[in-house]
Specification:
Radius of gyration: 38 Å
Structural class: alpha/beta
Bound molecules: ligand C2E, magnesium ion
Helix content: 40-55%
Largest sheet: 8 strands, mixed, barrel
Distance between the termini: 105 Å
Number of helices: 21
Oligomer: single chain
């Protein structure tokens, strides 16, 4: 190392811009004397004097990736094209690690021709700032919980891969994953446990893939996988099967154990598209199908799915419009009290009066309304209309309204019911809400709280379609059910009379034992009626008693039967109630 020179004094910190811990450098172009400060040496892990310093030292230590840009900037400045230079670059330390420095320098003397004579400057350690910036960048690209890439990064990698494929040919596959039963686990085990579950699942998915593949967490319990190589469907199938296998293996969380599943939708390029947007959307459509067809399974995209999605989108738009234009109407089906032979209540059943399709039954639009959340405003309308109608019935006749699981989960069912009762003036005791087991399966605690609140308001809760869900019996102990409606499939024409009788008898005994009113649904024949009655059902509903009919028709019927003094069984005049 040399110090001093004819054009000033390399080594005199007076000329080099300095601050405490900055490394300083000074170079004399005429004498080729180069000097660095002790701080500069220590910054890179050397003892002063340990490193032989010449004009090439710095360039030798520069990171390859930073070299071209750094040299270009210095060159510009030496030529006089820039008043100084300022570069962020990495320098190699004695131990081989890289240190980020901010290198600033300036020519302090030039000859008459403008050629540089001497240059001085500083190297400041900016590693800490760079590390912080790195963390911020990492956070912007990753999911904090699982440390997997996030949606944005997934999208960037997919774009990159597709660009590569366009240049060089080849194929890749996109898999959209959605965990099954995650919500239930989340609700039962709590957030901490479900976070740990997600981390474990993320780890298992990652471990199933090759290094070149990408797995990202898109949010919640959704993941996406990019299979870097995907010449044919076989690898995608193998990976999907393996993913299903590893995800469904039980996860031990402290003293608890959780089991979830995964549904997977797959889109391949080039068969299913060569744009990221299209592939992603199509993998998602295939996922939708996998979910609909039993979960814990995988499906490939098929062109028909695009059409179905379009049909769903149209149905959603149609439903929205129908709601705005008041195209829904309620029909009411009477329910007979077997002991007195009178109508105890009527169930409100929604229909859609469609301009071209005629009267559309609820089975054709309720699922779409549930999926899109439109069931919430629709359900509120049903509550308002049904309570309003029931206000015009004799005092002893109650109205039953079907409530979807989405309404219970949405959280505004209680205020909606109260508002409907307030607006109509109907007493809470005259309102029954029919829920299905899906309500209870989806969200145990929340559902339980809402149902208890409604019960304390005076509203009665009926369990509809009993026997079609599973593990029904445990629900019966946890919820304040007033009524049990045996699903009509048990009495349907197909089922043998003895079997029907046996099931109805068992359920009726169960319901009675728990203090509930047991209703037989779907009674179409006298024989079925006799079975229901003989086996202990207190109420009966079905075409034999009366078909669902507009409120006005039911009102006429109710009025007539009340005018007769004693109410007559509706089934004697079923045609009045028929459609
Ligand atoms: P649900 O609540 O079990 O209603 C009984 C269904 O069985 C009604 O079908 C009714 O017309 C039909 N039914 C009644 N007696 C007989 C019979 O003797 N034989 C046969 N074959 N069928 C009979 P609908 O009106 O098509 O309703 C179907 C389902 O749609 C309802 O089943 C209910 O789950 C749902 N739904 C209807 N209205 C609403 C509503 O306002 N909100 C919600 N969330 N769901 C509704
Ligand atoms: Mg019902
Ligand atoms: Mg039912």
């Amino acid at each position: 190392m040399r110090a001093g020179g004819p054009h000033g004094s390399p080594g005199s910190a007076s000329t080099a811009p300095s601050s405490g811990s900055d490394g300083l450098f000074d170079y004399d172009f005429v004498t080729d004397a180069a000097w660095v400060s002790d701080c500069w040496c220590r910054m890179l892990g050397y003892e002063p004097g340990e490193l032989r310093v010449d004009r090439h030292t710095w360039v030798r230590l520069l990171h390859l990736e930073d070299k071209a840009q750094a040299l270009q900037q210095i060159e510009n400045h030496l030529r006089g094209a820039a008043p100084a230079f300022r570069i962020e670059c990495r320098l190699r330390c004695k131990d081989g690690a890289w240190r980020w420095v901010l290198a600033r320098g300036k020519v302090v003397a030039r000859d008459a021709a403008g050629e540089p004579l001497r240059i001085v400057g500083t190297h400041i350690d900016i590693s800490a700032r760079k590390a912080a910036e790195g963390r911020v960048t990492w956070m912007a690209q990753h999911d904090g919980l699982t440390e997997l890439p996030n949606r944005t990064t997934f999208r960037e990698r997919l774009d990159q891969r597709l660009a590569e494929l366009r240049r060089r040919g080849g194929a890749c596959a996109v898999l959209c994953l959605d965990l099954d039963r995650f919500k239930a686990v989340n609700d039962t085990l709590g957030h901490l446990a479900s976070d740990a579950l997600l981390r474990e699942i993320a780890h298992r998915i990652r471990a199933t893939l090759r290094g070149e593949d990408t797995v990202a967490r898109l949010g919640g319990d959704e993941f996406a996988v990019l299979l870097h190589q995907g010449e044919d469907a076989d690898r995608a199938i193998l990976v999907a099967q393996r993913l299903i296998e590893v995800v469904q293996a039980p996860v031990v969380l402290g003293a608890q154990q959780a089991e979830v599943g995964v549904s997977i939708g797959i889109a391949l390029t080039p068969q299913h598209g060569d744009e990221a947007e299209t592939l992603f959307r199509r993998a998602d459509l295939a996922l939708y199908r996998a979910k609909a067809e039993g979960r814990n399974t995988f499906r490939f995209f098929e062109p028909a799915m695009d059409e179905e999605a379009e049909a769903r989108r149209r149905l959603e738009l149609d439903l929205r419009r129908a709601l705005q234009h008041g195209e829904f109407e309620l029909h009411y089906q009477p329910i007979l009290d077997v002991a007195t032979g009178t109508i105890a209540s009527a169930e409100a059943l929604v229909r859609w009066r469609h301009s071209s399709r005629g009267l559309v039954p609820p089975g054709d639009f309720i699922p779409a309304a549930e999926e899109t959340g439109l069931i919430v405003p629709l359900g509120e309308w049903v509550l308002r209309a049904a309570t309003h109608e029931a206000r015009r019935w004799p005092e002893h006749v109650r109205v039953a309204v079907n409530v979807s699981a989405v309404q219970v989960r949405h959280g505004n069912l209680f205020p909606a019911v109260r508002a409907a009762l307030d607006a109509s003036g109907l007493s809470a005791e005259r309102l029954e809400l029919e829920i299905t087991e899906s309500v209870l399966m989806a969200d145990d605690e929340r559902a339980s709280a809402v149902l208890h609140d409604l019960r304390s308001l005076g509203v009665r809760i009926a369990l509809d379609d009993f026997g079609t869900g599973y593990s029904s019996l445990s629900y019966l102990r946890h919820f304040p059910f007033y009524k049990l409606k045996i699903d009509r499939s048990f009495l349907s024409v197909g089922s043998k009379t003895e079997e029907a009788a046996f099931i109805v008898r068992a359920v009726a005994a169960l319901g009675r034992g728990l203090g509930m009113i047991v209703v037989a649904e779907g009674v179409e024949t006298q024989e079925q009626y006799d079975v229901a009655r003989a086996e202990g059902c207190m109420e009966v509903q079905g075409y034999l008693i009366g078909q669902p009919c507009p409120g006005q028709e039911l009102r006429i019927h109710l009025r007539r039967s009340t005018m007769d003094g004693v109410q007559q069984p509706c089934r004697r005049s079923r045609h009045e109630c028929g459609r």
